[in-house]
Design brief:
18 strands
Length: 446
Amino acid sequence: MNKKIGFVSLGCAKNLTDTETMLGILTEDGYEITADVNEADVIVVNTCAFIDSAKEESIGAILEMAEYKSRRCELLIVTGCLAQRYREDIESELSEVDIILGTTDYAKIAEVIGEYYHNGEKHSYVGDANTPVSYDLPRIRATADYTAYLKIADGCDNYCTYCIIPKLRGRYKSRPEDSIIAEAEHLAAGGVKELILIAQDTAYYGKDRGEYALHKLLKSLSAIDGIEWIRLQYCYPENITDELVEEIATNPKVVKYIDMPLQHVSDNVLKRMGRRSRQSEIESLIAKLRQKISGIVIRTSLIVGFPGETEDDFQRLKTFLTEYPLDRVGAFTYSCEEGTPAAEFDDQIDEEIKLTRHGELMELLKDISYKQNQKKIGTVTEAIAEGYDEDEFCYVGRTAQDTPEVDGTAYIYSKYELNAGDIVEIKILEADEYDVTGEVVNEFTK
């Protein structure tokens, strides 16, 4: 069928892998994918609905794509978390949308398009979020050739009081290890050097089946030829085991970097958030990571203005960050999400107070980030080249301690010619709040 399909993918990396799977399914079914929605006969918007700003972005994208229906577009499809959460509202308020697919139904994408073009039928599917998804599907990656996200699980069993994800993605469902390994081998054969492991809580992998197994998975993945870096995202502190710490410390292919969402450190706030860790446990874990894993970079995310957060709670958070400076921190104001327990709490924080606290925190974090980066000057680390900056007359890329599109940039001076995806050792010469500048110290590349 000679129809062109255009995609708009929003939200997190986990959502992106769903988009990549839909791209693979449609390509295998004979459809043509276009990056220009002006040329698209069918437009698919894969949405996010995690917080208010994400919902607004998703709705804005749907409305923008709906304008193309007066031109060439014949079919507008909405998938993902917004579709799962607000199917009835989309059907009643957004008449431009023709088909809706929930978070476990994206594999039906070719089926629903085919039904429309064969008999004019428009079917929507929004099933139970606990329905197991199939991972053994074709996939066309939207990332650089040398980097790939690898989803190892779906859903979440943490049930934090502020979070809607368990309702949108269901219970935690670990992906079978043989399926993960098979995809990783396929990715490596295609030139991928960096695997970024993702799940709603990566550290929980295997626990739904009886035991924590992320450390075993890392060992298996590191045995694959061609894979040079394995990066961990979204490891909740409650589920980071001693075995996992040891594997990160001793496995040369696991980069010394961990994304560990804390959200807060005050015991009062953590308890109300439904988090299992307490400040003393968080501090002990950070100390252990620093002690056991030389040079580890810790990324986290924090929420200010959670219902009931007192000034003392907020000051406790600032003091913690001063005493336990973390390398990469994203800070957000609390978003009151309908359908979550926290939305029903009586002691909601005034929006102006939220913004004031957020501003104070960002100033502190900027200073901490600068000091942490300054410590890197004179050190040698691995970095991956991603392109050449004509204005700066140097290569640009990332160190092993930086996740793409999230963390900082490495400006790399080299007397050797580098290709995108080359991994080299650089000596850090300069650093600011987020980025570093370095020079290649040898010609050897991975």
